[in-house]
Amino acid sequence: MEFATVNKGKVGIAFIGVGDISELHAHAIRKCDHARLIGIWNYKWVDVSAGGHVIDVLERSSKYACEVYEELDGLLGDERVHAVYILTPLDTHYEYAQKVIHAGKHVLVEKPVGRTVEEIIQLENLAVSKGVLCVPGHNYIYEPQIKRMHDMIVNGSIGKLVQLSIYYNIQHGPEVTKNLPGIIRQIMTHHAYICLYLTGEPPRTLSAMKASIDNGKVENENVAMAMMQMASGAMSLLQASFANDDHSAEPWSFYIKVLGTKGSARYSYNDFVHNEKHTIHSHTYQSFPYTIENLTEHFVTECILMQRQPLSTLQDAATCVKILDAMENSINRGAHINL
User: Fold this and answer.
1) Where is each GFO/IDH/MocA-like oxidoreductase domain found (predicted)?
2) 281 DSSP assignment
3) What gap in Å lies between CA 163 and CA 9, rounded to an integer?
4) β-bridge pairing 161-169 and 235-241
């Protein structure tokens, strides 16, 4: 799509799904000079988010200053809509993304893109055949500090990569985790695509563990960790926990550290904090909303209007699923997995 074909210089966007994350995406679109939110559709008029909040679609549309589609076909047939965000639970991503692509519209799919590698590859092939974009919502890597880390690794300024560590420690109680698939599938997709983006290579071996600690009657894991050796030999540690916060002097709420033979770099959520509860987080970690804004800016301006590539592709999304599958395989077998 060329810029001149977009009505009034704005890429029209619609949402499928209006959970908590839609608030950040709606704000991001308002901040983007070249985008506007046309409308939203949800399969229920009144729903409950993963965080346990009651969602009224009409209230959402009023808040977002956009229309509500009574039927999904109305959204898919709206010529004002150039791109659609899939913001629904994982098990519906493939179905809705297929419908959007068949309608000839670009699509951004929240992570994880699909349940299986096969689903993601099929979406990629379908998007290519229809001449539209299908982009994973891998928002963290659109943060400038993480992009700077990537550049330092690529240009060799830190020497050879030795270690990459990614930590996540933000408490989610059982009232929230009961609605989630477990921390591996819910959170560690972020770890996987960040690792791929920063190292530029896939892992060759992996070993993982998980636990459920102080999680009430919820059986799904709320703590997990994986150690990977990358193709170059560098080591990557991926850790995530819903069981605890980290309020220590050097907190690992969300924390990345890169160590090379000639240099190092770090990134922390806690460098930018507003002391106010945000959705299910005890604090407002300011970096997270900015990653959503940067993702929309790149998707609209760079990908749709300038026809450039996203920072993370569906091939990366497929590799992320392979990593998560390997983690669960390692845990179930108590074994070291070769990828």
Assistant:
1) 147-265
2) B
3) 44
4) parallel
CA geometry: angle 288, 173, 322, nearest 5 deg: 60
Name the pTM for this structure: 0.93
| Residue 54, pLDDT score | 78
Nearest one of 44, 45, 40 to 21, comparing CA atoms: 40
Mean pLDDT, residues 212-219 taken together: 89
pLDDT digits (tens, 9 = 90+) for 254-278: 999 999 999 999 999 988 787 776 6
Out of 2.60.40.10, 3.30.70.100, 3.40.50.720, 1.10.287.3510, select the CATH number for domain 11-137.
Answer: 3.40.50.720
Strands 203-211 and 223-230 turn out to be antiparallel
CATH class, 141-274+281-288+320-338 region: alpha beta
Q: How many CB atoms lie within 10 A of CB 217?
A: 6
| 120-134 pLDDT per residue, tens | 999 999 999 999 999
Report the residue count for the chain: 339
* Domains 11-137 and 141-274+281-288+320-338 agree in fold: no
Reported as a single tens digit per residue, the pLDDT across 178-191 is: 888 899 999 999 99
Residue ranges per domain, the chain? 11-137, 141-274+281-288+320-338
